[in-house]
Design a protein that fits this description.
- There is one protein chain.
- By secondary structure, this protein is of the alpha/beta class.
- Helix content is 25%, strand content 29%.
- Strands 3, 6, 7, 10, 11, 18 and 19 form a seven-stranded mixed β-sheet that branches. It has a six-stranded parallel β-sheet with strand order 14-13-12-15-16-17, sandwiched between helices.
- The chain is globular, with a radius of gyration of 20 Å.
- The two termini are 14 Å apart.
- The mean pLDDT is 97.
- One of its GO terms (molecular function) is zinc ion binding.
- Its cofactor is Zn(2+).
- It comes from Rubrivivax albus.
Length: 342
C-alpha cells in the first residue's frame, strides 16, 4: 500500500492508502523524490476541471516529479535500483500522424499523467510510490543536482517549448505576461535563447520580484499602467498568466509583424482583436505541453545552464498535501511548492 493524494471533486482532496501496481518486464517501481504542484493541479482542486478536462472519477494529480528507483522489471536496462530519475509525464503513442511528424505533444491518444483529459483518467504522481515505464525515465548522475531541481524539468520544458514555437529571439525583446512558475521558466528559456531584453508583466509584486531574480531585465505592474504604454515594445509576447487581460497586454505590446504565443489556458469565449492581428500581420501561436523540450530541460538543469532553485518556495510532506495546495494557491507567499515523501 502507498499513501496517495486524490481529488474526488472541487475542494475534495483526500489522502488514501492504495495498492501499488505490480511490475511488468519493462516497468520500474519508484519512491517519490519531489513533485511540484502545478496550476493545472490547482484548477482540478479548486474547480474540479481544467478547461474542458473535468474530473469524472477520483484523480491522482501531479505531473512534475522526480523519483528514486526501488525495483526494476526483468527487461529494464535504462535504470538501476538507487538511481535518481527525471520523470517525463507525456506518453504519446509514437504511431499516429502527429507522432510520426515529430509533434508527439499533439498525439491523438496522448496519455499525460495527472490529467482528466482521458477516461479512465491518467493517474498522476502525488503518492509515496508508483510504477512507471522505463522509457519515461532519465537517470540523473550529477550528485549536486537535487530531487527538487529534477522535478522542475517539466515546467521548464514548457518555457523552452514556448521559445521554440516563437522562433529565433537572439537579440530581440521578449515580453512575458505572468510571473508565476511558467512565466519565470519562460524567462530562463528566453535568456538561454539569447533574448537581448526580457520584460515581465504581472499584477502582483512577489511574482515580479521572482522574475527579476531569474533574469528579467524589466518588470511591470500591468494593472497600474495604461496598456498603450507598452505599445510596439516587443518582438515576441508570451502569455503565461491564463487571463484575458494578460493576452490583451501581449497583443497591444507586440510590434507589427511580431509573434504572440499563448501558453496559458484562457476562458472558452473571449474578445479577440482579429482585425488588428490581420492588419499588423501578427503571428498568433498556441503552445501546448512539450515534446523534445523535456529532454532539453533535463539537460539544462543537470548542467546548471539554468538554475531553478530560486523558484522552489517550499517542500511539504505528502501528509500535509492540503496545506501544500493552499500555499501553492497563495501567490503572495509562493512560486513553486513541492510535495516530498512522508
Amino acid at each position: 500500500m502507498t499513501l496517495t493524494c486524490r481529488i474526488h471533486a472541487a475542494h475534495d482532496l483526500r489522502l488514501e492508502q492504495l495498492d501499488t501496481p505490480a511490475l511488468g518486464p519493462h516497468d520500474v517501481r519508484l519512491r517519490l523524490g519531489a513533485a511540484g504542484i502545478c496550476g493545472s493541479d490547482l484548477h482540478y482542486w479548486q474547480h474540479g476541471r481544467v478547461g474542458a478536462f473535468q474530473v469524472r472519477e477520483p484523480l491522482i494529480p501531479g505531473h512534475e516529479a522526480s523519483g528514486v528507483v526501488e525495483a526494476i522489471g526483468s527487461a529494464v536496462t535504462r535504470v538501476q535500483p538507487g538511481d535518481r530519475v527525471a520523470i517525463n509525464p507525456s506518453h504519446p503513442c509514437g504511431h499516429c500522424d502527429y507522432c510520426r511528424s515529430g509533434r508527439g505533444n499533439l498525439c491523438r491518444t496522448m496519455f499525460f499523467l495527472g490529467s482528466a483529459s482521458v477516461f479512465p483518467h491518467a493517474q498522476g504522481l502525488f503518492r509515496d510510490a508508483f510504477v512507471m515505464g522505463e522509457t519515461q525515465l532519465t537517470p540523473i548522475t550529477e550528485a549536486d543536482i537535487g530531487l527538487g531541481e529534477i522535478a522542475c524539468a517539466e515546467p521548464l520544458s514548457i518555457g523552452l517549448h514556448a521559445l521554440h514555437r516563437a522562433g529565433p529571439v537572439l537579440g530581440e525583446t521578449v515580453l512575458i505576461t505572468g510571473g508565476g512558475t511558467i512565466g519565470c521558466m519562460t524567462v530562463l528559456a528566453a535568456r538561454l535563447a539569447g533574448a537581448a531584453r526580457v520584460i515581465v508583466g504581472d499584477v502582483m509584486d512577489r511574482p515580479l520580484a521572482m522574475a527579476r531574480t531569474v533574469g528579467a531585465d524589466e518588470v511591470v505592474r500591468t494593472d497600474q499602467i495604461d496598456p498603450k504604454a507598452l505599445a510596439d515594445t516587443a518582438d515576441v509576447a508570451i502569455e503565461c498568466a491564463g487571463h484575458p487581460a494578460a493576452l490583451a497586454t501581449c497583443l497591444a505590446a507586440v510590434k507589427r509583424g511580431g509573434r504572440v504565443m499563448q501558453v496559458g489556458t484562457l476562458p472558452a469565449e473571449i474578445a479577440f482583436p482579429a482585425n488588428s492581428v490581420m492588419a499588423r500581420e501578427l503571428d498568433y501561436r498556441g503552445v501546448f505541453r512539450a515534446h523534445l523540450a523535456f529532454d532539453w530541460a533535463v539537460q539544462a538543469i543537470r548542467s546548471r545552464r539554468v538554475d531553478v532553485r530560486p523558484l522552489i518556495s517550499a517542500q511539504l510532506p505528502l501528509t500535509q498535501a492540503a496545506d501544500a495546495f493552499a500555499l501553492a494557491a497563495d501567490k503572495t507567499r509562493s512560486t513553486k511548492v513541492q510535495l516530498i515523501p512522508s
